[in-house]
Amino acid sequence: MDSRSRWDPGRVYSANKLRAVMRLIRIEHTIFSLPFAYVGIALSGYACTPKIVLLSTLAVFGLRSASMAFNNIADFEIDRKNPRTSARPLISGALSFKDAWTVVAIGSLLYFLSALLLNLYAFAFSPILYVIAMSYPYAKRLHPFPHIHLGLALGFVVFGGAVAASGGMAHSFYKVIISVPWLYLLGVTFWVAGFDTIYSIMDLEFDRKEGLGSIPALIGPKGAVFASSLFYAFSILSFSLAIRSYALGMISTASTLFSAFLMLMQIILVSSNSEKIPLAFNLNLVVGVIVSVGVLIEKAMGT
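Predicted structure:
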């Protein structure tokens, strides 16, 4: 068994229940997706208050926790059969189904309550974002493009941030919708789809055996790397167009260029050796933060 077939960021390394919960919800994924909510707030064109930032943070944390826990529940039988995922919290027994459902319930309550306290538009849109996030585990059972579904689940974090800021002040549905920085939403969607395509190479043989959909299972590892390259290219194009559209400056440009470099490095690493997917994974974690921080610094400086 090679290193990539053993590696799993959801693996439990300790019997400690708190640590097991952190693995269940992949706490680092939440932390690294949060900045895009703040980008949505910053580019909405509406005033940002501590209340909006706090409730948006709680909403993202709640939804991500609920969806990750539900993903583990929905995929239990699949994960149990896959040697790579056999040490995840539910499979290993570190957590029970009751524990996982408790996380789903608490996360869902936190998400909807935060949306309600933000504004009525945020609450009205909240079921849509909830369904997108919670339905992700079933995408691979229906079609070979679950990577795009996951990309949309994270891309709509941008949407949520924008509505959190605009929904309480805009006086029409149209004004709320146009407050959303759609180019950044698309950029995030393509970025996440690109890496998830690479990540899925590790399960190519298993997915084919079980009849699960993924781009690697459909067109093989080389085709998957090429598809990922296209997703990354569309992501950088979207971010670049957003910089122009929002008249952002050198900081955003530099952060986007550096993120493009990290995406290119991932493609080079995986093209030369698929066992380097874990290293590419670690590089990918900082991409979203770098892009977001560039935008947030410029907005804080009054650009």
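Summary: The domain at 21-300 is CATH 1.10.357.140 (Tetracycline Repressor; domain 2).
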